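Appendix B, example 12.
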Amino acid sequence: MGYGDQEPGLLSGVGALLMIEVDGPAHCIEDAASEVASAARVAGIRELHSWAADAEAAALWKARQVLAPALRQIAPKRINEDVVVPVSRLPELVDGLERLSRETGVRIGSFGHAGNGNLHVNLLVNPDKPDEMAQANRCLDALFTLVIELEGTISGEHGVGILKRAFVEREIDPATLGLMRNIKHQFDPKGILNPGKSLP
């Protein structure tokens, strides 16, 4: 992380920014922060900063919270998908997103929870442009294929819903899906709970 002054902010021109917060008994915090900082000093890091004061941490969290609204300044529509891959494969996912953006011309903004491999992938498009939406659909299809190839799941925090329902069969085998349908039927024989969602 780097900011150019002593106030938390965002450094321009970086590929990614990683925020790490340590917690625990007061007598352990300094050592924990030092260990994390040591682990973070890897090839390619631009800058590393640590802040201990509550106000500074709050400013960093505020920067994180305004990411989604800020993306609306780039394009009028965000297609926001939460995907998860093993933490060790997160760099491959990020590289894959850059490739998909180049191939489809769709701008992609991502943020999430690096500690558990959960990434909120935002395809930034104009819904009034059919060509853009067609490319976004192509990009979305390729995104889910990539995630499964990386041994991940197409849905992390937000569930399958309607949009991802068509992709569930790529991730879950027919026998398991059949079992899931049977379990749902036992508890919802009339199909009134979340009708038409989750299971293809």
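Strands lie at 77-84, 107-113, 118-125. Helices lie at 26-40, 54-65, 67-71, 90-104, 130-149, 168-171, 174-187.
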